[in-house]
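Write out the 3D structure for:
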Amino acid sequence: MEAEEIRKVLGWCSAINMGMLMVWFLAFVFARDFLFRIHTRWFKIPEERFDEIHYSMMGCYELFVFVFNVVPYLALHIVK
């Protein structure tokens, strides 16, 4: 695979992953009660812990997207 192809793949991966993060965030903001009801059917967790879990996981997901998609994309773009 050429570096240009890898750069394009990383660019699309970054866009798709950030889109998924936005969908997750918007679902959490606008449908939080619905999500909480669904999750409490499966797990017994208080509301504060539910918020903490989602906020922490969104942060981890965003960090992984930046480390494994955005930074390599920018590095390949700079080297180009």
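The mean pLDDT is 95.
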